[in-house]
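Q: Structure tokens for this one, please.
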Amino acid sequence: MSNTWRTAWHGQEIVVYRDEVEVDRVHASQIEKVVFVYEGSGDSPGDLRYAIVETADDCLIFPAETGFAGRVNFERVDYWAGRGCVYWVHHSRAPLPMRLRRGRWWMRLSSGPAFGRLPRAEIAPLMDHWPLEGPQTWDQRKWRRIERSRPFGGRSDAGNDSKHDDPDHRQRRA
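A: Here is the predicted structure, written as tokens:
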């Protein structure tokens, strides 16, 4: 029997439900960073595999089936744009500890890690090495993709730092 997951806004909190029973909640003001882990180009909602939400003490993992991405990308868009805390990373560059990989996730027989709340100290050191793109909302990401597809759109001008928009850009270490 499979569980039905969903998230919903209740005031300023995002509440997580499993089979219509509340299992967790996080106040939006406590969220320091949202990282969307995607496959493919990350250009469509179907490319999103999971999200990691960082608070001061914890990291919450939201699989795609929870609908968390919709709460951030398509609801209260101005709030998230103003916060500047939404980032993106390709799944091949975002390794998680083996124990968080649900079932045969690594063989693509499941969609990704299960929902969970973990101590930030366990996940944050890994995330520090991920080549994050952003901060950018879904709309900002879409418009940057459109801009890059135009002739001469990939060129860097004074106000555009294109290395942060390129998912294949590798930061060089000194």
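A few notes: The chain is about 20% helix and 25% strand. Residues 5-137 form one domain.
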